[in-house]
Design brief:
Layout lengths: L2 H6 L1 H6 L4 H13 L1 H19 L7 H14 L3 H4 L5 H4 L3 H22 L7 H12 L15 E2 L8 E2 L7 H4 L5 E9 L5 E8 L2 H11 L4 E2 L2 E2 L2 E2 L2 E9 L8
Length: 244
């Protein structure tokens, strides 16, 4: 007998279900074949281990539930319908839902059509298009001449280059007043703009022209040149002799 035939008869061999000739052939093979003998011993030890496991007993609560369910199933067809699957207990529920769903869809579509706003007149549409196309352009990049930064934190202050100092006579004209100026130093060190924030514009014209010719070492942010706004407050006062 081959190993395959013996291994297929191990369970029947243990239970004593084989005939006398088959039983002897299997016993002889198990003594001669080491692999089949090992398989036989492993099967025996596994079954012996299962036999030592305590048997589970059904509690009275579970048993009473089962008996109650069986009792209700055997009483009347009307009571048994409650415990049937939905498709079996209510075979017409699905066909009845289809017309109801169609009615709901029609009602919602009608409400949306009736609530649809009237189209705008052509003149209003054209004005809306013009307003959309004339929206301001996006904000320029940070640190450029159109979007300068302030000198703080990691942004260094621009330094005036030698030989580009504003003449002193422009800073001390006759008259009284205060000038508040903004100078935008570009990334290449030139002055891209000079804005008069407060003061007399007619008296400040020569000063503004001179400030536009200044040259700086540009401000930097982490080693990269950036445009920086520099603010100046120039106060002037005319001193006169007291009246006697």
């Amino acid at each position: 007998m081959t190993c395959r035939g013996v291994r297929g008869r191990l369970s029947a061999y243990r239970d004593g279900d084989l005939t006398g000739s088959e039983h002897r052939l299997v016993a002889v093979h198990l003594e001669a074949c080491a692999d089949c003998g090992t398989r036989w011993r492993e099967l025996g030890s596994s079954l012996d281990g299962l036999a030592d496991v305590p048997r589970l007993t059904c509690s009275g609560e579970v048993a009473s539930r089962i008996f109650d369910r069986l009792d209700m199933e055997n009483r009347k067809p009307g009571l048994a319908m409650l415990f049937r699957p939905m498709r079996a207990a209510r075979p017409l529920i699905l066909p009845s839902l289809v017309p109801a769903f169609l009615v709901v869809v029609i009602v919602i579509a009608s409400a949306l059509i009736l609530d649809r706003p009237e189209p705008l007149p052509p003149v209003v549409q054209q004005r809306a298009i013009e307003a959309w196309t004339t929206l301001p352009s996006p904000v320029p990049d940070w640190g450029t001449e159109l979007h300068p930064v302030f000198a703080y934190g990691d942004v260094s202050t621009p330094r005036a280059r030698a030989g580009t100092v504003v003449p002193r006579y422009l800073l001390e004209p006759t008259g009284e007043g205060t000038l508040f100026l903004e100078t935008v130093v570009a990334r290449d060190g030139t002055v891209s703009a000079v804005n008069l924030i407060g003061g007399d514009s007619s008296e400040a014209a020569p000063l503004l022209e001179a400030l536009r010719k200044e040259r700086f070492e540009p401000g930097r942010f982490r080693g990269r040149p950036v445009a920086v706004s520099v603010y100046r407050l120039i106060s002037r006062m005319e001193v006169r002799a007291p009246l006697t």
